[in-house]
Task: structure prediction
Amino acid sequence: MTTAFPRHLHDGVQYLEFLGRFAPACGARSYFEIGVNIGKSLRRIDLPSIGVDPKFMFREDIMSAKPELHLFQTTSDDFFQTRSLKAFFPQGVDLAFLDGMHLFEFLLRDFINTEKAMGPDGVIFMHDCLPLNAEMTERERRPGQRRDVELKSYWTGDVWKLVPILRRYRPDLEVTLIDCAPTGLVMLRKLDPASQVLSASYDEIMEQWMEVEMTDASLEDFYKGLPMSAASEVLSQVGA
Result:
């Protein structure tokens, strides 16, 4: 089942609940997360896990029932330069959640580096790529200058650009847009750890996309032709 956009809000299963239900149902044996922050998502995953964030701000127990947890208080770029995910998970990462810096060049690098370490049936989720209005896609977070007061606390930055970029450069990927509240999830499957396409095209992508800005009109165009899958149905497919 797919639903049409535009809508005021994504009204599917809240993304934290979605991840907490998806992880045990999909058969994953390992979990990797960029952008841990206070640990709201990491605490819901009871798998051997690795979390990366330049500044952890935990407010509660994030260990939960995990058999092991490795935390790295550093940027994702530094993590990938100095560490190997395969050293922790030799069979590859089964499930990854990318929720780091909300600028597309950071998310692109995070995807490139994470895909290299994914297992054969691995799944990557990207957060905040399905904005609700054009204001929240600005590269600078400035809630005090937003016209849409109701949504002024939402800042997705310009990571929405990963959707058209991946569709253009990596048509081999299976890209699923999910209506998780509040700003959606993008699920990526049929990953290819050996692919060099995005790395080889990185400078070209930066040149093409760095100055592109979302407008009210282009937001509507962004969603045209992009089917939105219901979170409940995605969970049902994996038996959650």
Q: What stands out?
A: The radius of gyration is 17 Å. The first helix runs from residue 15 to 25. Confidence is low (pLDDT under 50) at residues 1-7.
